[in-house]
Structure formats: C-alpha cells, structure tokens
Amino acid sequence: MKLRALAIVTALAAPALAAADDQTPNQPGKPTDPSSPTDKTADPSSPSDKPTDTDKSNPPTKDAQLGDGDVKIIAHLHHVNQMEIDLGKAAQKSGTASVKSYAETLVKDHQSSDQDLTSFARSHKLGTIPADKPQADTDKQDQKAMMTQVAHLKTLKGAAFDREFLDMMATGHDKELAKIDVATGAASDPDLQTMLKSIKPVLQRHADQARDLQKNPQASATQPSDTVPSSR
Model-level pTM greater than 0.85? Predict the structure, then answer.
C-alpha cells in the first residue's frame, strides 16, 4: 500500500519538475538577448564602415593656383589688351584708310590675346582678373600720362589723329616689349612664361607696322614689314 502511494506522489510531481526545467535560465555563453549585436556590419569598429580614399576630395594640383607675382603680370597684360582694343576702335572711327586697316589688325590680335589670357586665368582658378595697379612711381606717372594722351587723341580726326595714334603705338609697344622680357624672367608658372613668349612677336609686329605707316602713310598695315614679295 505504501509503495502504491509513493508511485502516485512521484507521478504527480513529474509535471511540476518539467515546468520548472522550462523556466531555467540559459547557461552562460549562449546569449538570446535580441538587442545584442550579432551582425558584423553593425559594429562601428568594423573596417567596412571606415571612410575610404574615394570618400576624400582630391587635393588641387601644384600649378592650379597662381602666385601674386604671376597674377600681377596677368592683370597688366589684360590692361594692355583692353587699352589696345579701345584705341584700335577709336582709330577705326577717326583715322584715315591705312590707319583703319592697321587698327583692325590691332583689335583682332588683342581680342584673341585677351581671350587666351582669360581662359588661362580661369584654368588656374583666377575667375576675375584684378585691375592693373602700378607699384613704382614711374609706372604710375606713365599710366597717368597715357590716360591724358588717350583723352586728347579721341578729340582728333584724320591725319592729325594718325600722327598721334601711330606715335603712341610705336613707343607704347616698345615699352611693352621691354616689360614682356622682364615679366618672362619673373614669371614662376611655366605656362605663363610660354604665353609671354608667344605674345612678344605680335607686339613687335604691331610696333614695326606703326613705324612703317609713319614713314609711308599708304603702306599696308596688314602685310608684315619683313615679308619678301614672291617672284614669278
């Protein structure tokens, strides 16, 4: 009878023990917390989350920016181009036929030169060419005298205009040729040096043509003075 009662007690206790086993905490080393990180990509220290070289902006090249000295050279060249274009247009209105032809060449050459200069400046991150500001007292005086001379020139017509205009072109281009040589030696950018060297022959031709017209007002300004006639 006692054995039978013990079997009944054991049978009743078995379900309770089984339920207690279901509520037993997991053993250490087997976490089941859903909030714990299980994905490698979510780890901030994972190498895949670190910025790569492609995320960094490319640094500018060495020659992307111009030095102060080169900027001053460009500013002066731009000033000269604008002056020559302005004077050339004035000559096309007030000069005689031969001077008008010469003036047309001036305007065309200096417009082309200024376009190249502007493109060069922009490619070197100089969006706006600054005004030309002479530093030396002699340069300041020359610029002031030039402005006075230009104002007087624009009041003249015909042969009187020709004489003063051609004198300005001959002496003015001579001065610029000397400045080109100095600027070429002072420029630090190799491309700017190349540009200055390419400008020099154009300025020399303008000076030569002005002197040819001074000697012979009927000379053709569009024909280079050293051209040899072709033989037939």
Answer: no
In contact, 85 and 110? CB cutoff 8 Å:
yes
Q: Pinpoint the alpha helices (H) of the chain.
A: 2-22, 68-94, 97-123, 137-153, 158-186, 190-215
Report the alpha-carbon distance of residue 107 to residue 1 in Å, rounded.
Answer: 132
pLDDT in tens, 106-140: 999 999 999 999 999 999 999 899 999 887 888 88
Question: What is the 8-class DSSP label of residue 224?
Answer: -
Phi–psi pair at 130, nearest 5 degrees: -70, 165
CB 117, CB 71: distance < 8 Å: no
Distance CA 4, CA 8 (A): 6
> Which DSSP state fits 61?
P
Ordered by start, the domain boundaries in the chain are 65-215
Written as one string, the DSSP assignment of 110-151 is HHHHHHHHHHHHHHTT--SPPPP---SHHHHHHHHHHHHHHH
Residue 151 burial (CB count, 10 A): 9
Distance CA(135)–CA(139), nearest Å, equals 7
- Print burial letters for 93-117: b (CB count within 10 Å at least 16), e (below 16): ebbbebbbbbbbbbbebbeebbeeb
User: What are residue 131's phi and psi, to 5 degrees?
Assistant: -70, 150
CATH class name, domain 65-215 = mainly alpha
